[in-house]
Amino acid sequence: MTAAAIMTAVPEKRPISAGALATLLLGPIAIVNGVAFVLPVFNLLMLSFREALSGGGLGEAFTLENWTGTVTDSYYLELIGQSISTSLFITFLTLICSYPIALYLHRSQGAWRTFLLVLVISPLLTSAVVRTYGWIAILADDGLINSILMYFGSENGIRLLFNKTGVVIGLTEILMPYMILALLAGFGRLDHRIEEAAETLGAPPWKVFWRIIVPLTMPGIALGCLLSFVLAISSFITPKLLGGGRVFLLATEIYDQAIVTLNWPLAATLSMIILVVFGAALVFYSRLLRAIS
Amino acid sequence: MEERPVSLSLKITAFFMFAFLLAPVILVLPISFSADNFMTFPPSGWSTRWYVEFFGDTHMIGALGTSTLLAVAVTGLSLIIAMPASYALVRMRLPGANVLLSFFTAPLLLPTIVLGLAILIVFAGHNLLGTFTGLVIAHLVIVLPYALRVLTTSLGGLPIPIEEAASTLGGSPLVVFFRITLPMMAPGIVATCALSFLVSFDEAVISLFLTGPRITTLPVALYQHVETQADPLVAAISVLLILLTLAVVMIVDRTAGLTKTFVK
Amino acid sequence: MSTTRQNLPGHLSIRGLTKRYEAMAAVDNLNLDVAKGELIAFLGPSGCGKSTSLRMIAGLVPASSGTISIGGRDVTKTPPYKRDIGLVFQSYALFPHMTVLKNVMFGLEMRRVPTADAERRAREAIALVRLEGKEERRPAQLSGGQQQRVALARALVIEPSILLFDEPLSNLDAKLRDEMRAEIRDIQKRLGITSIFVTHDQVEALSMCDKVAVLNGGRLEQLGTPQELYEQPATAFVASFVGRTNRLRGKAEGDRIDVAGMTIRAPGRHAGTVDIMIRPHRMAMRPILEKAAADVEPTNRIRGTIRHVYYSGDILQYEIEAAQQIMTVEQATASGGAPLAEGSDVELAWRVSDTLAFEVRQ
Q1: B71-116 pLDDT, tens digit each
Q2: Which of A84, C13, C44, C291 is 20 to 30 A off residue C169, Cα-Cα?
Q3: Are the Cβ atoms of C107 and B184 closer than 8 angstroms?
Q4: Do residues C202 and C185 share a domain?
Q5: Which residue from B minimizes the CA distance to A170?
Q6: Which of A33, A123, A205 sits opposite B104 (nearest CB)?
């Protein structure tokens, strides 16, 4: 026993210690993350406590003005409320549209499944600008839908672009791939033998769906909804282009305050509010997940 | 295993949802061959004039050049930075390796609008706005999480005994890494390159904050173009971008596997 | 502790080898000498420390304390790539991106053997494991057995001073396993390479190896020839792990042991609580009505009742309730008589010398 203790006390000879090697290997990524992630975000947080002077200048003193101003101003309160409710609505639509695709994908196999996966993932990797442009082509006054309506005798068509309807439709489609992938990841527990067991016990298809499939895929649904909500409330390109400057959401307001009005402290405060909403969504999600399992 | 047959109602619903999902991507193809001056659907005539227009548009071509150069630089750097990091995280049994991995992939969780603003403010104080260097650093932040995730998955999937075998046969750690580990990671590395390239090439929001009159990327130029006018020029460029995306998705599927990379 | 003692340190000499993970010792003070050319098995249940010991010998796991020397050279701190050891893995661990030939040549290349020479030797090794013609295949194009042969050739070709096998046959089906067992044994003897063979399969250990080291809970229970292990197990663990046993617990006084009111004799003198073990096929059984033949040798006799009879072709297995225990007795079937009926009262008899008794430490 004592001999063993003495042996372990002797350090092993190595050309370079494990700690030093790890530091060397992880150093570059830590620097990038520090310089372009941790530092800027911390700086942004600090900025939300600084006074905005006219012309983009910054006051030196610490102030709660931005925060108190934002959460007492009815315009910003409505903006935040609108952003949250719109994002929730979009999340719901995304779930409804994505679920059949995910279920179908889960049940298909081989090359056909790969092909369908390519169809799902390709939009995900296609620039949001390109896909939003596609929606302009569909929703515009002389776009696909209105051309069809006119063909069938409609006089004026309907206004789908540069209002909330357009933003909701576009964002729903943009977020679908994320939702589908999250659902698919959560479908692992879905075993067709369980469904068959339920059927042999006398459950009709709609009951199998509501009583077996939906509860079993609940973790995937929760994850997909979290992702969609978070992405919806922070998306910028689509609301800006499809809203045509007439739909105001948190993300577009942040951009306007930062670039147009040059009120960085306010933009920083709104950014932090988005992060607070994120945090709340995350807490809600983990509560939900615990309740499910 | 016998698969459960897919019911007709599910097939039909899934078909319509797929149509909805793919509609905007598919629609740009006919529009790109429009002969009209403005974007209308259906076009009143067909031509390739918008493709010609694109290749004659010095602003767009310049942006394409910047985007390509930027994506190549970011891809190379992300590989050089993420490779050693993933080795340390997967193989060195560091205490808290999971926490570190979460930390290094955290930029993915941050909304790009917030990250873009945050970087804008810091870069403004260091003359990095509107510079290539600034864009490279900012893109690295969002590309590295992807690279790290694919590489750690790839490395974590390698059987350790193979490396041990090489070691007992006389291969020093460096020889084992370059002769055994690296070649076995080839699929993961190809997938990392493809993804990194595309994520950087397509990035619009952060770039929007960092570009200016001096330098712009293709997605930013497209965004600004769409914001001011609706003509089929963007459709023509979109078709080219969609083809690029498809190529990358194919590469990822052939190498790392789509399911492994995108479905956890 | 070991029943075979060597005066000289062996070709492979292990002294006080210990591996601790946190507070738990995976390998605890292992002492072992392996003579040149010997094939020795590390046998034990999973988690007994046999694989950890092997990995320490290979240098893949650093030892917490103790020393390992090969041919008189202390290699305890030597990294695996400088140890000159061949290791055959359970999962084969072939390099998937190299051909069979390149796999086998890898070790020679590391030793800077000129390419032409290396290729000649690699081809010889491939021929030795009877894989001629498969040199340009990739591992994925080979069957499990063929892959294992490549792994063997790859380990052999570097002419290591020690060859280690880490459960190399456990991924093969039964028939292939028997074939490979004979083949490995044959090649090992022919080349005279000192070898260690880790296995949890006692048949493999007993039938292949010159000596067997039985490990349990990180400790060496016994080192001996297969016969020594079976006939003179040093501990109750060895007796029950190697071969099958019936186990009875009783109170001992001298050579007499009281089990549920019956007296059983065992060789040697014991005291206190003891475990008695008897091999099922060393017991004779007959109906009580038959007249007992005069014993030539000292014999233990107890009475019991047949509870179950299992017929499996060449063997009849009886489960007999005796001494408040269920005992198993095996008999070879014969063309004549029918098996005894369930419920019959029988007498069990076995030689005193076949009684293994172990004092239970409390």
Answers
A1: 999 999 999 999 999 999 998 888 888 899 989 988 888 889 999 9
A2: C13
A3: no
A4: yes
A5: B24
A6: A33
